[in-house]
Amino acid sequence: MLLFIALETAPVFVKLISPRGPYDDLLDQHEFTFAMHRKEKKAILEMQTDARIRKAEDEATYV
Question: Would you say the pTM of this structure is higher than 0.70?
Fold first, then answer.
């Protein structure tokens, strides 16, 4: 039983002990790009919503 547990958990321990490699740097770059894209989409949606609200408020003042 202990041998099975050791074999199953070995890859996790090796990854935790190993130094950062090129793949880790590429992964960080990809995650950063994804996060910035998500923030940009959120900002665009907020600007569009604000524009619709202002337009609705302007139309309401003319009524």
Answer: no
